[in-house]
């Protein structure tokens, strides 16, 4: 197999394409990627293409047994393994984390794992017992008359960079009420995080995990699934599974004291909420 990278850089018009032979030698692959990177100027317009080539080659090196995956419920005993996956991928890949250069954040770890006791979250596990993907969910109930207003997420957040992200979540909560759109529901399943090991991306794992979460909702008489996406790619996955957008806040429109707070790399341009009605059996 050969991977061809088309050259779209105008000032390198003499190079129409570069053909990279598939290899299992990581040193040769690194040298090839470095060679390609050295051809680029003014911001590395081909960097994403080099990254895609490396990801595709990494997929080819997976032994067949590692492609044999099972989906099962996450329990609190899985907490350390779930956090290990998130630290290696989600914490680094999520566009707002990347933009603020979040680094280590115990508050984010707590936020990610606080609903594991519900047993509504699921993991993809390979034949070695390694967690290679997760969907982390929690059930949110409709407020009742007389209930105390929920505490704002940012109020007790000590980490200054994560507090900025939580303040955005608070802003969304203050300006969007899902129960106004769906007055017939009394609760919904909130998808907080989907994360997949980069070696296993492109295998439909996010879809399998989402399907299992929808199955959980169906079995527990939950009529709606909800996901807040800060990533363009996460939103695209949900749209392919027939989730529909009900709210959008462009990052350019979220300002504090007149200043734009978040400006992540394209194509991440907005916070989006998507939902899906679930047929309860």
**Based on the structure, what is the oligomeric state of the protein chains?**
single chain
Strand content: 15-25%
In spatial order, strands of the major sheet run 3-4-5-6-7-11-8
> Which class do the helix and strand fractions yield?
alpha+beta
Determine the N-to-C terminus distance: 47 Å
Give the full name of the CATH homologous superfamily of the largest domain: Gcn5-related N-acetyltransferase (GNAT)
For the biggest sheet, the summary is: 7 strands, mixed
In the CATH classification, which architecture of the largest domain applies? 3-Layer(aba) Sandwich
Sketch the topology as an H/E string, one letter per element.
EEHHEHHHHEEHHEHEHEEEE
Could you list some keywords that capture this structure?
281 residues; alpha+beta; 7-stranded mixed sheet; two-stranded antiparallel sheet; 11 strands; 23% strand; transferase; GNAT_dom; aralkylamine N-acetyltransferase activity
Task: Describe what this molecule looks like in 3D.
The protein has about 280 residues and is an alpha+beta fold. The chain has two domains: about 35 residues; about 210 residues, Aminopeptidase (3-Layer(aba) Sandwich), CATH 3.40.630.30. About 35% of the residues lie in helices and about 25% in strands. The protein has ten helices and eleven strands. The strands form three sheets. Strands 3-4-5-6-7-11-8 form a seven-stranded mixed β-sheet. A hairpin with a 5-residue loop joins β4 and β5. α1 runs antiparallel to α2. The longest helix is centred in the middle third of the chain and has 16 residues.
């Amino acid at each position: 197999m050969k991977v061809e990278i088309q050259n779209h850089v105008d000032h390198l018009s003499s190079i129409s394409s570069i053909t990279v032979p598939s290899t299992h030698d990581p040193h040769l692959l690194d040298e090839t990627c470095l060679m390609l990177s050295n051809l680029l100027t003014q911001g590395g317009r081909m960097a994403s293409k080099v990254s895609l080539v490396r990801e595709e080659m990494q997929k080819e090196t997976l032994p067949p047994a590692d492609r044999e995956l099972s989906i099962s419920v996450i329990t609190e005993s899985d907490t350390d393994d779930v956090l290990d996956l998130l630290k290696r991928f989600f914490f680094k890949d999520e566009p707002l984390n990347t933009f603020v250069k979040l680094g280590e954040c115990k508050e984010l770890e707590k936020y990610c794992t606080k609903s594991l006791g519900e047993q509504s979250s699921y993991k993809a596990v390979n034949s070695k017992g390694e967690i290679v993907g997760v969907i982390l969910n929690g059930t949110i109930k409709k407020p009742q008359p007389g209930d105390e207003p929920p505490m704002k997420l940012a109020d007790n957040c000590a980490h200054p960079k994560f507090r900025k992200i939580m303040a955005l979540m608070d802003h969304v909560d203050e300006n969007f009420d899902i129960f106004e759109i769906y007055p017939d529901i009394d609760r919904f399943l909130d998808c907080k995080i989907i994360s997949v090991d980069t070696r296993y991306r492109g295998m439909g794992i996010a879809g399998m995990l989402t399907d299992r979460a929808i199955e959980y909702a169906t079995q527990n008489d939950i009529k709606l699934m909800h996901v807040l996406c800060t990533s363009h790619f996460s939103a695209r996955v949900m749209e392919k599974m027939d989730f529909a957008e009900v709210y959008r806040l462009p990052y350019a429109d979220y300002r504090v004291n007149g200043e734009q707070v978040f400006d992540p790399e394209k194509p991440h341009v907005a916070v989006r909420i998507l939902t899906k009605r679930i047929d309860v059996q």
